Amino acid sequence: MAAASTASRLSPPSRSHVRPRSLRPPLRRSRFSPVRAAKLEAVLSIGSHLIPHPRKAASGGEDAFFANSDDSGVFAIADGVSGWAQKDVNPALFSRELMRNSSSFLKDEEVNGDPQILLMKAHAATSSIRSATVIIAVLEKTGTLKIASVGDCGLKVIRKGQVMFSICPQEHYFDCPYQISSEAAGQTYQDALVCSVNLMDGDMIVSGSDGLFDNIFDQEIISIISESSGVNEAAKALAELARKHSVDVTFDSPYSMEARSRNFDVPWWKKLLGAKLIGGKMDDITVVVAQVKTVAVLEDEGGDIEEQKGNEQSIAVAVASAEQNEE
Ligand SMILES: [Mn+2]
């Protein structure tokens, strides 16, 4: 086999659900070779921050998420939706259980790094009632980020100070997003927006619930990302600015601009007086910021085993952190 195949590129063409069982082809090196080859693998450094809706602070809100940097990196966000039947049921139960289940199926053979299959399994295992919007993103060692999203959680990739990738929200009508549900009328993994994007070293991923993207503009995201010294600091700064805008009734937010463009506005006579529909949108705000890094890994059968130590433990810790605000 050609020596060139030992150097894996970070941005191969992205394809398909079918992928080789191992991204590391079996190598036949001469046993006389004194040098072990190294290859580059992509990993995520992940920070997160959640600020509940001001009126839901005591219960921790209805957003839930998990993040895990093992095996290159994966994160997921779910936004529990209220306003459905069973008004006495806390929507947080559904979003939290969906995230717990997503986390526990990560190593499932059938899932095999596919976020849409992970969503299918997590949804099937969720017994709480209600519904949630959800996004799951899984980074492959090659640098391909695979995404499955149902509803209006967002994800943007920032490269060299510009948004180079962004997913579109799915909705039935304004303010009614697609949602994974305990009801048959809801959406399933089959309705997910599924896409992948090839990332490079240094790329920044900003993902969040609608509470983030309804309250903050791309230019603000870009400047916070460029000014922050780390992913946790960036996630916190983004969440805090979104929160500040969300309670500002004079801020012309992305949400109020969108509402006006859909013909939601103040009555005509108020318009005559110069009034317009304006203000932030109070909501739970969840932010995940992930930085793509490439690391050199020696071509050695033992290497992978070393890297994967302690996975189960860190998964448990990640889910706990998503529930730190639970009553
Ligand atoms: Mn929300």
Give me a quick take on this structure:
With 327 residues, the protein is α+β, with helices and mostly antiparallel strands.
Shape: globular
Which ligands does the model contain, each kind named once? manganese (II) ion
Strand content: 25-35%
**CATH architectural label of one domain:** 4-Layer Sandwich
Instruction: State the order of secondary-structure elements, H for helix, E for strand.
Output: EEEHHEEEEEEEEEHHHHHEHH
CATH superfamily of one domain: PPM-type phosphatase domain
Query: Helical region count?
Result: 9
Computed over alpha carbons, the radius of gyration is: 21 Å
Protein described:
- Keywords: Hydrolase, Magnesium, Manganese, Metal-binding, Protein phosphatase.
- Residues 48-292 form the PPM-type phosphatase domain.
- With 327 residues, this protein is of the alpha+beta class.
- The protein has 9 helices and 13 strands.
- Strands 2, 3, 4, 5, 10 and 11 form a 6-stranded antiparallel β-sheet that branches.
- It is globular and about 80 Å long.
- Manganese (II) ion (MN) is lined by residues 79, 209-211, 283-284.
